[in-house]
Automatic annotation (TrEMBL):
Region (Disordered): 120-148
Family, similarity comment: Belongs to the RLP family.
Source species of the chain: Rhynchospora tenuis
InterPro entries in the record: Leu-rich_rpt (IPR001611), Leu-rich_rpt_4 (IPR025875), LRR_dom_sf (IPR032675), RLP23-like (IPR046956)
Protein name: Uncharacterized protein
Bilayer topology annotation: Single-pass type I membrane protein
Major location (coarse): membrane
Length: 216
């Protein structure tokens, strides 16, 4: 699909497209996730727009892609590992976005050994960039990483709540048994509680008296 054209296509026609060039069109929003169904597409150029969000996670399904140009947008998140499945990719440009994490590895990606492909993304790490992921600490945290796995996150939360509840029960039992067997401590504790209630009662009485005086 070329720019400066006004054409109407149905879904079946979309599957026959070989090229999409929508560069420099002031496009906003996210790249549609279902664009990955265009498995016969050879060229995709969405550069020089204002696109946000993440690169479609299953972009590796577009196995026929020979050229992918997404530079000069506001894309964020990590580069999907599935991009390494694009075995026919000859041109790639992801520069000047807000991408982060490690750059995926793959036979075809390694043949595109040009750092400028990823330039302008300071939070990217790994070859062909000079900064290594271990040195910079920019380890990926996308859907391929256990840190963002909802199941594992839920398990960690469950353990955290379990330890909190266990600590509360242990603390309560310690105080209970101390008061049960230490008469002096029990006397001091209840005396302190009574004194606290007395202070609250006095404060409440004074506050009530002041409110009545203000009304009169």
């Amino acid at each position: 699909m070329n720019k400066r054209s006004n054409l109407v296509y149905d879904y079946n026609n979309l599957l026959d497209w070989k090229s999409i060039d929508l560069s420099t069109n002031n496009l906003t929003g996210e790249i549609p996730q279902n664009i990955v169904v265009l498995t016969g597409l050879l060229n995709l150029n969405l550069s020089h727009n204002q696109l946000t969000g993440k690169i479609p996670f299953e972009i590796g399904n577009m196995t026929s892609l020979e050229s992918l140009d997404l530079h000069m947008n506001n894309l964020s998140g990590t580069i999907p590992q599935s991009i390494s499945a694009l075995n026919y990719l000859e041109v790639l440009n992801l520069s000047y976005n807000n991408l982060s994490g490690s750059i995926p590895s793959g036979r075809q990606l390694q043949s595109l050994n040009d750092p400028s492909i990823f330039s302008g993304n300071p939070n990217l790490c790994g070859p062909p960039q000079e900064n290594g992921c271990e040195r910079s600490g920019n380890l990926p945290k996308d859907d391929d990483n256990n840190y963002s796995n909802p199941k594992l996150a839920g398990e960690r939360d469950n353990w955290l709540f379990l330890f909190i509840e266990f600590g509360f029960v242990v603390g309560f039992l310690v105080v209970f048994f101390i008061l049960l067997f230490q008469r002096n401590w029990r006397y001091t504790y209840f005396k302190m509680v009574d004194s606290g209630f007395d202070r609250l009662y006095v404060l409440a009485a004074l506050a009530t008296k002041r409110m009545r005086e203000q009304r009169t």
